[in-house]
Amino acid sequence: MALRPLIAICGTTGVGKSNVAVELALRLKQGEFKHGWRGAKIINADSMQTYEGLDVITNKMPQHLLMDIKKPGEQYVVGQWVQDALINEIHENGEVPIVVGGTSYWIQHLVFSDRLIGSPQANPSPAKPPHKSLEEMQDLIAEITDPELLALLNNLPELPPSATSNADDAFKLHSLLNTIDPVMASRWHWKDTRKVLRSLNIIKETGRKASDIVAEQASRKVVSEPRFRTLFFWLYAELNVLEKRLYDRVDNMIELGLLNEIRALRKLASEGVPPGSQTGYKEFHDYLSNPESSQSEFTSAVDRMKLSTRQYAKRQVSWIRNKLLPTVDLANREDALTPFFLLDATGL
Q1: pTM of this prediction?
Q2: Selecting from 1.10.357, 2.40.50, 1.10.20, 2.20.25, what CATH number does the domain 134-219 have?
């Protein structure tokens, strides 16, 4: 049976993915296309936009499905999202799914049927492999700016903390993994402390990201078969233009009420609900914690958020270039079932 169509739009935060998705959906709605497809549904593939109450900080667009479907602190991982995307139902309605978002990891595992990775297995040997020193992992820990997280990496717990009775330690453990290896962190919920701790131990034992090891192992297996005839668009902008766009976006977020959203997250955190890993929360933590904070401290918090946003965009590009593209290329060796186009979004 011929594969059904799907459009996937990936790229960094702030590059204009959602606007392109809306334009495509409107174009598909204008008339009949080959094989009777008519119209489209846009599906959100941004992991943070699935949570309620993050409208400004994640720059949501109301036309997308799978937004605001979870409350902060609730578990939601890639396997659940793949099921919730309801691609078959959209196809049965004669519409083309347009999947758009910055979590390219999710898009990859939707399109390719056997790419969901298994959990790291506990080391069966009673002898614990020696850990690398922090000096040996300088490239991996370069983005750890929080001294508490650095100390935690240097002294990982022997046993995973309970997410029920020790939520703070459980969340810090996941935050550490998210800083070093965001791809693997997006696979495990913060409450799944056993898998989170095992991933961190793999990093310390090997001096490599756990996600890189899993991807390397997967590359030795049979080429992944796509579930859909997928048209990929990677929106890419020149770095100097993208940086200005990202910085302006942070300024605009502040005008739209970013600090009020962060205050609401802080209130939830005080009630035991972890705030998640979205950029902005930790950058404004010190400023909002001190009622006497000065304008210079506010400016420093804004600058930290802009830097974190730029670093996040770099990680998004790295994932697409080093993980998604090789998988697509392998799938296209015999039949071009997943054509991939780079679109210059510099002028958008």
Answers
A1: 0.72
A2: 1.10.20
